[in-house]
Amino acid sequence: MNASKSLSPFRLSSLLRRQKDPILALQLFQNPNSDSTPQPKKSSRYSLLSYDLIITKLGRAKMFDQMDQILHQLKQETRFAPPEIIFCNVISFYGRAHLPDRALQIFDEIPTFRCHRTVKSLNSLLNALLRCGEFEKMWKFFVGIEKYATPDACTYNILMKACCSNEYLDDAWKVLDEMSRKGIPPNSVTMASLIYCLCSNLKLKEAFTLKEDMARVYGVPPTIFVYTSLMKGLCKIGEMSLAFRLKEEMIMRKIKPDAAVYSTLISGLFKLGRKGEVFGLLEEMSEYGCKLNTVTYNAMINGFCKEKDFEAAYKVLDEMVEKGCEPDVISYNVILGGLCQEGKWSEANDLFEDLPRRGCTPDVVSYRIMFTGLCDCRQFREAALILDELIFKGYAPHRLSAHKLVEGLCREGDMELLRTVLTSLGNGNVLHVDTWAMVIAMVYKKEKLSNVSELVDTLLVQ
């Protein structure tokens, strides 16, 4: 029998690029022969591109143990040194998966691959730590940053975003000042992040001053994101005339308003009870060729639900479908929340059960809305059913809602359902100590000592 012919590095890379299944791609990489007989690995089969392709596929699929094996194999290569971008991507994969320690580890190991670290991998690490919420590790790392690389505008933008995420406004201003001291000019991302944070905290005077300074002092013209942030701040305090004036300023500066701008204005009009003006905005959107998207429709749905006009909200859903804009889970969650707040739990439950037929999969927010709503309406048996499904899907209920359900069952003396609920909470590892203490106290107070004993047994089983 003739020996099977090995794939060339070029052919292997071509096949890897076309293979969508990461598991099959890995099998192909590990055995790049035309038959299924394992062959001794020959490093000459693998090009830098093939390594890059398989690492990317495994990282996107979160197959990190397999990706680590490929990285270990890459470390043994002597024919070439991998470029830094490969490690930037790996760090980003770990960041998206909320694995900060692995991101730090691969950053430390970059030199062992005969690759020089620059500000690119440094920024990738900082961004991964930011995504993971590891702010303390970010700051500790930044203190000695000079020994790794010289920070650039992107570095400071990541720090600015971290400050704004935590609403550390004083620290955000310090980041801007340090950029000036080091001669690193802030860019539109820097300014947009700071202005967004100022507007979120309703420090609109400072935000508008910074907007003017963007062009006058820093030579950076305001972007559409800056205008949208300012409009959101103005809408929150009911200054719609100023918000509309900003929109006109955008148009004058040849910045075309997008759906986010109009959605912000629509939400503001609904908040002030001026829904009659919304249709004029929708006509203007059409004139500018700005197509309504899910965000715009959701703003309208939210507005109608705030006014308790659920019939109009449902009509918006129907219009979305007619216009080819598929409602998302947020569209339905807004209506579910509105119905539950109005005590229309039966209607909300009907809509919730109808979501799969409508092509929408309920998310954790959907379940929490229904569970909280049913508890508030004292529909404890229905709430227990939702709780069981919620726990089964790996979600956790809001602590106060779970406490309210248990308290209600204790007061009603429904010991059988109470035991079922406690079991569900125990299975989900979300049975809090204070809730359990409340159960023991209330049941003991009613002198149902045997029931207390049974409940203690239930807890011990969990």
Q: Any overview of this molecule?
A:
With 462 residues, the protein is mostly helical. It has a domain at 163-255: Alpha Horseshoe (Serine Threonine Protein Phosphatase 5, Tetratricopeptide repeat). The chain has 26 helices and no strands.
Give unreliable regions as ranges: 36-40
CATH topology of the domain at 163-255: Serine Threonine Protein Phosphatase 5, Tetratricopeptide repeat
Task: Give the biggest beta sheet.
Answer: none
What gyration radius follows from the Cα positions, in whole Å? Answer: 28 Å
What's the overall average pLDDT, rounded? 88
How would you spell out the order of helices and strands?
HHHHHHHHHHHHHHHHHHHHHHHHHH
- Identify the overall geometry: globular
Query: Would you tell me the structural class of the helices and strands?
Result: mainly alpha
The CATH architecture of the domain at 163-255: Alpha Horseshoe
The fraction of residues in strands falls at: under 5%
Helix content: 55-70%
Query: What is the CATH homology-level superfamily of the domain at 163-255?
Result: Tetratricopeptide repeat domain
Number of helices: 26
Rounded to the nearest angstrom, the distance between the terminal CA atoms is: 62 Å
User: What is the level 1 CATH name of the domain at 163-255?
Assistant: Mainly Alpha
Q: How many strand segments? A: 0
Organism: Prunus dulcis
GO molecular function, one term: mRNA binding
PPR repeats: 152-186, 223-257, 258-292, 293-327, 328-362, 363-397
Keywords: Repeat
